[in-house]
Amino acid sequence: MVSTLVIGWWAGCRPVLPPTMEVVHFDDAPLSPLLEVRQALPVRVTVEMTDGSETIRLTSPTASLVHHIPLLGLKPGRQWEVEVCSAVSDQCVGQSVQMPELPDDFPEIDVLAHAHPTEGYLLLPITLAAPGQPGWLAALDTHDLEVAWLLRAEPLFRDVTLTPDGRLIGLRNFTPSQLDLHGQPVRQWDLGIAHHELFVDADGTLWTLVERLRDVPAYPSSYEAPTVLDQATTLLASDVVHFDADGHVLSEWTLADRLADTRIGFGSLSWKPNGPSGPGFDWGHANAVLPRPDGSVIVSVRNQGVAALDAEGELMWILSDPAGWPQQLQPFLLQPHGEVAWPYHQHAPALDAEGRLVLFDNQAVGHTPYTDPPDEPLASRVVAYEIDEGQRRVRQAWSFEPPGPRLTAPTRGDADPLDSGRVLAHFGAIHKEGGVPNVELGWAGSSVRILEFDPWSGEVALDVRLSTPVHRDDDGVTSYRSQHVAQLYPHDTDVRRTLP
Description:
By secondary structure, the protein is mainly beta. The chain contains two helices and 43 strands. It folds into two domains: 2-98, Sandwich (Immunoglobulin-like), CATH 2.60.40; 108-488, Methylamine Dehydrogenase, Chain H.
């Protein structure tokens, strides 16, 4: 649907041909219509949108004859009055824009805590877990936890970032890709089977993980006898790949060469017969890359632990339960200083302002095949470690579990330190709360919780649950990661919001 209004105004003492204003709606991005303003003189424009309660006012960053401005932050089910004013005249043109309701199959949003969270938006992929079900990218306004932007995402996205120029960059069907906020493709990079991570570095280069098949002469066949190497087989291993914006590979490091391809964790004997690159055992299941300013990187290898590689790709240290590591890697294991609880099946390492390593620790299984299980199941958590790289020592700085029933999230997860000192925690696939399966609590098999908390006091500023009712869907909803963004518009756009 396209709507057009035409008005005329005066520039100085001479008439100017009337500009036109068009509002174009997109089926796949129903909450972000595109505003097009055409005018006879290259000038900046101001756009004001209000639903009678909330007002969003923005000014275009440059002067132009034609402006294409996505209208972002409009809440569903409301009528918004959109007014455009030119810099050369006090006259303005306006139009009413009706936002549709959310899709009928969109997950339910329950706000469990809301105590002055960081202003902005939570950007996240949302997937209905049952095969063949739809998925979206969404932004939730932290002011009211309503959806403020939505994109139907097929094929589904996993790791997604909103770049300063207002574009989406992430992994789409194992391919690093860039889109605009209406879902229109901008570019993609062909590196092979990229998975789990696409990190945009400060210099504009990118980091990802690329799956590689690896034939090994000996490998365990049993969690009960993990030290017995009794089979030759193929592993699904991963390379850390660093590439530039043109797709040129700058470096590539094979993780199985730097760690032990004979050590297993729970999940390492999971046989993937139909993987995108071929069949093999899921030896490492690398799931994150975190570059550092000195050129080194921290890599999360879910079934093994967390490792740091220097700027040349050489191993620096390993944060992991020490059980099962071969003798040649023992010197690289971080030694505990004080009481340290090791991470198991961790995701999404990040560094806080003091250099602490923050992880989402799924605590799946809670031990290794080389050690006995804990006395009781461990809950998923967020944890921070202080690492002395010179001494190869580690101290646990803090550990956070949400108040209330303990959460079990065996897969997915994220933990992002915020500028305020708080942390954004993302429980992306919760199966149990307080040891009780979701289906006994009224929700389908998997649900999502996102919390903003103070790591030192444990105070929770935000807690929101996404779920589907058990009678509607047996599999529920999952979400890979989330991130906090201050605004949806490009950073060079001056945006002001007036909230009720």
